[in-house]
Amino acid sequence: MGKTSLRQLTAAAAICAGLGQPVAAGSPEGQILHAELLPGWQTEDGTYMAGLRLDLAPGWKTYWRAPGDAGIPPRFDWSGSQNLVGVQVHWPAPKVFISNGMRTIGYDSQVVLPVELTPAKPGEPIALRAHMELGVCHDICMPMDLRLDSALPTEGRGWQQEPIRAALDARPVSAEQAHVGQVRCEVEPIADGLRLTAKIDMPTLGPDEAAVFELPDPSIWVSEAQTARQGMRVVARADLVPVTGQPFALDRSAVRITVLGEERAVDIRGCAGN
Q1: Residues 151-165: what's their mean pLDDT?
Q2: I need a labelling partner for 203 at 20 to 30 A (CA). Which of 150, 233, 245, 250 fits?
Q3: Is the pTM of this model over 0.90?
Q4: Which pLDDT score, from 0 to 100, does residue 9 have?
Q5: Which pLDDT tens digit goes with each residue over 202-230?
Q6: Do domains 13-171 and 174-269 have the same CATH topology?
Q7: What is the 3-state secondary structure (H, E, C) of 73-106?
């Protein structure tokens, strides 16, 4: 389609992490990424909450689930695990980075990703074997392979659980919590897909608000949203281009919009038509 920015994928590194065992990866000149799986706790719902802590070298960053045109989307493969039927990664609110006129969304310094695991047989151990592909960037960008191999659950101590709880608290708040009013989406066909305009009635999040659209189908390319505030309303517009390069039927209830601000973010699920 010619709309995805060229990424400099100059190298790849593989790192493996066990529970509570930090590992590192990077060039001989310095380690880029330290990864550690933090032990957590059994939840009231019978799931197990763990945490993946990533420590990045100064100047390096990694990416949120929707990283922007110039970012590398994270990918997870849990299929090698045993006694595991579901995994949910809980994403803390990310930062917006502008470099060479391009916007990316992610984390620098350190981030903890809470990972909630659902066992097939509650009460029995989970053999976690996961493969994750994470992008890291400085002046160049490169993918890194992260492999986890751990037996769970292991009850973490308080100091091990605290970073996971803090990361859960740092997630975007819901539309209800943020006192979001009406959320309406206008859809118009373009030559190779759709143009989506969301009008969101909500209190301000600060001077540099940015909206991000996400769709259930990852094959649909979503452009960087142009975001502006009009009084008590955020207006965000993006192009949606499927692999067919043609207009398509959009389920507005499945559109996910995250509005990012300097201090917090808001997670909005679905929007109405006019």
Answers
A1: 87
A2: 250
A3: no
A4: 29
A5: 999 998 999 999 999 999 999 999 999 99
A6: yes
A7: CCEEECCCCECCCEEEECCCCCEEEEECCEEEEE
Alpha helical stretches, state H, 85-225: 158-169
**Any idea what the Cα angle at residue 53 is, between residues 108 and 90, rounded to 5°?**
90
d(CA 106, CA 115): 17
What are the residue boundaries of the structural domains of the chain, listed by start? 13-171, 174-269
Q: Is the pLDDT of residue 13 over 80?
A: no
For 90-202, strand residue ranges (E) read: 95-99, 102-108, 110-118, 126-137, 141-152, 173-174, 183-190, 193-201
Residue 11 binned pLDDT confidence (cut-offs 50, 70, 90): very low
Give first-to-last CA distance, the chain, whole Å. Answer: 30
Q: Which residues contact 263 (CB under 8 A, 6 or more apart)?
A: 205, 206
Q: Does domain 13-171 have CATH number 2.60.40.1250?
A: yes
How far from chain centre, in Å, is Cα 180? 22
Q: CATH topology for 174-269? A: Immunoglobulin-like (2.60.40)
Q: Which residues pair with 101 in a beta bridge?
A: none
